[in-house]
Amino acid sequence: MNPQTAQKILADNFAPWVLDLDLAVVEVGATHAVLRLPWDARLARDGGGMCGQAMMAAADTATVIAVSAARGAYGPMTTVQQSTSFQRAVVGADVLVDARVTKLGKRMAFAEITLTAEGADEPAARASTVYALLG
Length: 135
Fold this sequence. Notes:
Layout: H1 3-13, H2 16-19, E1 24-28, E2 32-37, H3 52-71, E3 77-86, E4 95-104, E5 108-117, E6 125-133
Antiparallel strand pairs: 1-2, 2-4, 3-6, 4-5, 5-6
C-alpha cells in the first residue's frame, strides 16, 4: 500500500468530521502508517494546547490505515478499545501520528501509536488500540 491509496481509504471511509481534521498520510509500511495532524487553532483547548479529542481521533484513524496496510487492503473494522496517555502539550505544531500493528489475527488487531509534535524529541502522547475485524 502506498500513501495515495491510504489517503483514498481515508477519503472514502471516514465521517466528515474526521475528514475535517485534514489528516494526511505521510508514510505507509507493511504494518505501520504515519499520518500528519496539522495544527489548527480550532483544535486548541483552553490554554492553547491541541485538544485530546483531536489527537485520539487521529490515533484511531491512523490505526485503521496501519491495519489496512497489514491486511493488504481496507476492510470493515471497528474500535473495541483505545487507551491514550497524554505526556505533554502540543502548541502551534503539527502532530505526527505513528501507528504500528503489534498483532494481526483473523478477528482482532492490536496497535501501538505514538503522537509526536513535529520537531520534538519526545512524544506528546501514546495510545494503544484493539480492533475487531468485521470482514
